[in-house]
Structures are given as structure tokens and as C-alpha cells.
Amino acid sequence: MASNRVPSDVEQHDTLSCLPEDTNKWVTYASAPGVIEDVVQVIDHQAERALCRRFDLRLLPVLAVMYLFNALDKGNLGNAETDGMSKDLHFQPNQYNLLLSIFFVPYVIFAPPFAMLGKRFSPARVLPILMFSFGCLTLLSSATKNFAGLFTLRWFLGMSEAAFFPLVIYYLTTFYRRSELARRLAIFYAASNIANAFSGLIAFGVFQIKNSTIPNWRYLFIIEGTVTVLFSLFAYSYLPRSASEAAFLSPDEKALAFHRIQVDSSAIVNEPFHLRAALAIFHHPSTYAFLAIEICLGVPLQGVSLFLPQIVQRLGYSTVQTNLYTVAPNITGAIMLLILAFCSDATRLRSPFIVLGFLFTFAGFLIYASITDVHAQIRLAYFATFMMTWGTSAPSVLLSTWYNNNIAHEGRRVLLTSLGVPLANLMGLVSSNVFRSQDQPKYMPALITVAAFGATGAALTACLGGYMWADNKRRDRRSGVSVRASDVPTERLRDGPASEEFRWFL
């Protein structure tokens, strides 16, 4: 068996000829039968680390703040409801649940086309435009007079937020290697947990306003919508369209950035989007397994996001205290997300940590459902709400990272992400209809339903991960050499599992 000596996770590229040779790091990589031999090449690991730090400082804080406001504007309805929004707008029974449900219909319908536009015109331009749109809609929500007006605004809010998270994921895959992605996405996604906590703090502060001429929940929409609009204007001028157009990089750094993505993220960097080529992703059975896991993830994810204030309210706190007591579970959810994501990148494993997250979800909802007297076991009941947040954040990030790691074709990657993420959010239709007003304050049917989805998600993830491990072993036996997924340059993997060299990123 012929073998080459090449840098781990990389492949030769002409643009790296300018890099210094005093930082050579070599490992042995053996090619599969029939594959053309690579030549020896060099990589400067110190330059890579410096480049990643620059991306981290320039991109992640802005994207995290953008997603924070995205989550605030989507989830503030629950906070407004605790301040009597339904009563002020004269809602009929279950109309509040309809408001929650209608959001997810356009959210799923418009995610793929908007994501394709983002691929065409660059996420750096489309993301701020989407942010400006949902900020304006949040502002308009403060002026609604009845159910019909708020119902209409929630429809358009779902449209404007549809492709936001999928485009951020795709955008980051154009800057980071596969093994670097989970922790960066986790830092970004942690903004969602912080947003839920921050939303509780904002609601706590706003609901302290006395002698106001308008209901305090309207101030919540005004404050959050205004800041969202202002920040979107800054983001439009700040985000680089791509690494090659980033003004803060030198020519050598731009060359290195291109090389990193070419060999450890995309088969063809900045490949134009072609729908027919992208649709080939549905020829892979693993696609349907990933989507099924997204469905199982979506129910607990949306259940916690939309109904955590109502779950905490069962503990007997006042409106103000209820919003305040949602802060700690969301903060610890963000911390657990970061812990699992950093561990996942360190071990280069995704599926075991996704399973662990699902088990947290299952345990949290099951414990909460089993408590008959929350006042006698209030500490255990409150701890269960922490486990709920631990088990919803991490699987969302790691699942998106998992299938992006296994797809080198940029068009297929953005298409699957634009379907998978909204599909998980579509499960808000299930969550918003199992948390029924007639079941409060315990919501027993909802708790059992969410726990069941958590258990199913853990089982499906374990099965898919086991299949990938077995398939990698089979491919190793066929080629006569043991190869890790990170050892194969992604520019060879445009055809996915059809390639002899393909290895699953577990």
C-alpha cells in the first residue's frame, strides 16, 4: 500500500508556498486504492491559530449578539403573556397557542429559499437584512390592538427569522475547519440561552414600571425591537462577505484561510449554488436519519423555549419572580452547551454528546412530571428545569455540526441545514399544542410527550452513530488501511459516501 507524508487534516495547495518552513508538522496518510498520490506539503500551525483568533474576535461576538436578538424577538411572547397580554387583547381560549403555532409555518416554508438567497448574495448581507426585518416586526407588535393584528405580525416574523440560524451555520463553515466548528457554534448558540435569561431580566425590569399609560408588555416589544434594528445596521457594514474579502486579513492570511476550507470543510470553496446538485443530498439515507433526529430535538427545544416561564410558574411564584427564576436555568444551559461542544471538538466525536443531551432532556421532564407536590419538593422541581435546558441546547448545536461535518458539497450543506433547523423549529407546533391551558399548572400530557421525544432522539442518534462507526470499519477493511474522517481532504469528498475515501465524522 502506497503512502504519503502530509500534514494532518490538510492537503497541498499552491497558495501556501509563502508560508515559513520552520513549523513543519508531518504525519503519515495512506491513500485508498486508485487514488492519485498527494505530494508533500507544509502548514504553519502558529499562523492557523492566529488566524482563528482573528476570526473569533471579529465574527463570533457580532454573530452572537445578532442571534441573541433573534432569540429575544422570537421568544418574548412568553414573557408578555405572563404580564397579561392575552387579557389586554381579549384573546379567546387557545388563541395564545395559535400565535405560537403560526410562527412556525412560514418559518419552515421560507427557510430553504431564503437560505439559497443567502448562499447567492452572501450571508454577510442577507443576515443583517433579516435582522432588520424581524426587529421592525417586533416594534410593530407593541402597537397591536387585537388577536388578528398580532397573528399577522407573527406570520411575517416567522418569514424573517426562517433562514437566520441555517445561514449563520453555513457562514461559519466558510471560515472554520470541521473540528473547530462545534465550539464556535456553541459560543454563538449560547446567545440563545443567554437571550432567554436576558429576556427574563428585561421582563423583570420592565414589569416594575408603575403608573404607565400603556401595558408594560408593550414596552418589552419596543425596547427589544429598537435595539435589534439599530444593531442590524451596524452588522451590515461590519461582517465580511468571505475570508478572501476580509479587509482585516493580509494576503497571506487570505491564502491560508482559503486553503483551510478547501481541505477541511468544502469540496469547492464558494461554489455557485445549483439546485439540482444540491437536491442530490436526498439520495443519501443518512439525510432522513438526521431529519428524524431534528424532529425529536424540536419538541423539547421549543417546549423549553416557549413554555419555561409557564413551567416555572407552577412553583408558585409571582409574575415578576417567575421571569426572574427562568434566568438561572438558561444560564446553566449555555454553560452545559459550551462544555459538551468543547468536549466534542476535543474528541472529534458528535453522536455521544448528542445522546447525552437527549438523556438530560428525558430525565428533566420525567423528574418534573413525577413530582406531585411541588411545594414539598420545590428544590427538586426547580433542579429539573435546569436539566431541561441542559438537554435542549447542546444537541441542537452538535446535530447541525454533525451533518455539516459530513457534507463537503456547499450547496447540499446549506440545503440540508435550511431544512433541518426549521424542521426542529416546526415542532413548536407540537409543543404549543400539547401545553394546553386546561392542563395547567402541571401540564402532565405535555411533560410526558416531551420526555418521549427526548428518549426517541437518544435512541435514533445512538443507532445512526453506531451505523457510521460500523461503515467506517467496513471501508477501512476494504481499503486495507485505517483512516480517520479528519485525514481525508474535503476537496476529494464532493460525492459524499459514494467516494471510496469517504469516512463518517462520528
Automatic annotation (TrEMBL):
One of its GO terms (molecular function) is transmembrane transporter activity. Its main location: membrane. Residues 59-506 form the Major facilitator superfamily (MFS) profile domain. It comes from the Eukaryota. The keyword Lyase does not apply. Pfam families: MFS_1 (PF07690). The keyword Transport applies. It is found in: Membrane. It is a multi-pass membrane protein. Keywords: Membrane, Transmembrane, Transmembrane helix, Transport. The chain crosses the membrane at residues 96-117, 155-173, 185-207, 219-239, 288-312, 324-341, 353-371, 383-402, 414-435, 447-470. GO terms for cellular component: membrane. SUPFAM superfamilies: MFS general substrate transporter. Belongs to the major facilitator superfamily. This is Major facilitator superfamily domain-containing protein. It comes from Aspergillus coremiiformis. The lineage of its organism: Eukaryota, Fungi, Dikarya, Ascomycota, Pezizomycotina.
